[in-house]
Amino acid sequence: MLVFVTFTNIYYYSMYTVIALQIANSLNIRQCKQKLALPICYSDSDELFLSNGSEKFIYIFQYGVIAFFNHTTREINKIVKRLNPTADYWQEQELSETIKVSITKGAQQVTFDQVVLPNFDQEAIRLVLLNTSQSVALDKYLEITDALLEETNGYIKSLELTGKLNISGKKLKRFIGKVLNIKNQISENLYIFDAPDITWENESLNRLNLALKQTFDLKDRYRYIYERTAIIKEDLELFKDIMDHRESSKLEWIIILLILVEVVDVFVVRILKLM
Predict the structure, then answer these.
(1) Number of domains observed in the structure of the chain
(2) What is the CATH number of the domain that holds 58?
């Protein structure tokens, strides 16, 4: 803690670091409680907010993101390995987000790289951890949708060049299932447009939550990802229609061949009777 002295008054200034990172595709909240065994500040089926000593907090999310408030690199890596032994150390994580939190007497403020709080408020800190974690999750889903869109564009390019859809029916069904699953995960895990319960009756926390969403550009990024999944879904529906038409054409040819065989059979039988 730093102490600044002026001619008029004395005030305190504290700086903390928030680090959020993706350590797994998903985390079991119940198992996380058992593995860490720390005092619980808040918990439900999807989230776990823990105290880890004086002015230290950990926020764990079911979708695989964990956020740390005021932890050293060694402490972070120790907890990460305890929750997921196969995870990389946090410095090596591609999906991560860092922001500073300062406690300064005065007005609440949010900038692109720092949050200023007038006092050490646990619920305000929880909001910072929540929005930082949502930002990391958005990066994860952006990577996934980019890969899906790239794969879809490959099939479209093949269709343009050859006039044929270069994908089997079974693979197409699995692809559609994957896209729908990702879309459902985004809707379930990222409540970007919903205000947390703690903001309903506290105007200061509500302002902080809105400012954090704006700073991390959460709503626009969410819409961007959702629109991309909608485009992919639309393309896959077109692929399905083409596949259904192809299967229908095959069935029509099979029926035609069967009719032809039957006609030839009847014709041959009549010829043999005449002979």
Answers:
(1) 2
(2) 3.30.310
What's this model's pTM, rounded to 2 decimal places? 0.81
What are the start-end ranges of the H helices in 19-72?
A: 29-36
End position of a domain, from candidates 58, 86, 119: 119
Q: What is the CA radius of gyration of the chain?
A: 29
Alpha-carbon span 155 to 179, nearest angstrom: 15
Q: Which helix (H) or strand (E) holds 150?
A: helix 122-162
Looking at residue 204, which CATH number applies to its domain?
1.20.58
Question: Tell me: the pLDDT tens digits for 147-204?
Answer: 999 989 988 888 888 887 787 778 888 888 888 888 888 877 777 767 788 888 899 9
Q: Which domain holds residue 225?
A: 134-247
CA distance 216 to 208: 12
Strands 65-69 and 40-43: unpaired
Indicate the residue among 74, 91, 119 that finishes a domain. 119
Q: Give a yes or no: residue 78 inside a domain.
A: yes
Whether residues 198 and 93 share a domain: the answer is: no
pLDDT digits (tens, 9 = 90+) for 206-258: 999 999 999 999 999 999 998 888 898 888 888 887 776 566 566 666 777 76
The answer to whether residue 255 sits within a structural domain is no
- CA-CA distance, 259 to 239, in Å (whole number)? 30
Give the E-state strand segments of the chain in sequence order: 2-5, 10-22, 40-43, 47-51, 57-61, 65-69, 96-104, 109-110, 114-117
Q: pLDDT value at position 2?
A: 44
Whether residue 113 sits in one domain with residue 139 = no
Cα–Cα dist 32/28, whole Å: 6
> What is the tens place of the pLDDT at every residue in 19-52?
999 999 999 999 999 999 999 999 998 999 999 9
Tokens of 115: 């949050």
